[in-house]
Amino acid sequence: MKLKYNFVTSVVADKTVAVAIGNELGKKNGIIKMNETGAFIFNMLKNDVEKKAIVDALENEYEGATRKELEKAVDSFLAELKKCGVLKI
N or C, where is the chain less crowded by C-beta within 10 Å? Predict the structure, then answer.
């Protein structure tokens, strides 16, 4: 799975925001706000990636979280992106 559109991300007031760029700007109007973990996942989705690889990367990046907690967080974030219509599966 990966993002449907090209996005640029930036940190604004301690939150990461993503905005569609180029020709995609007209297709996906609006800003996506996310926390640090969401931004980590979002940036991985700029390339075609499987859920397992995302969870593996989070497990390596963040200590103290169980795999089950990470899977739940990934599922929740992916569901939000699907709802926004920006995720290509």
Answer: C
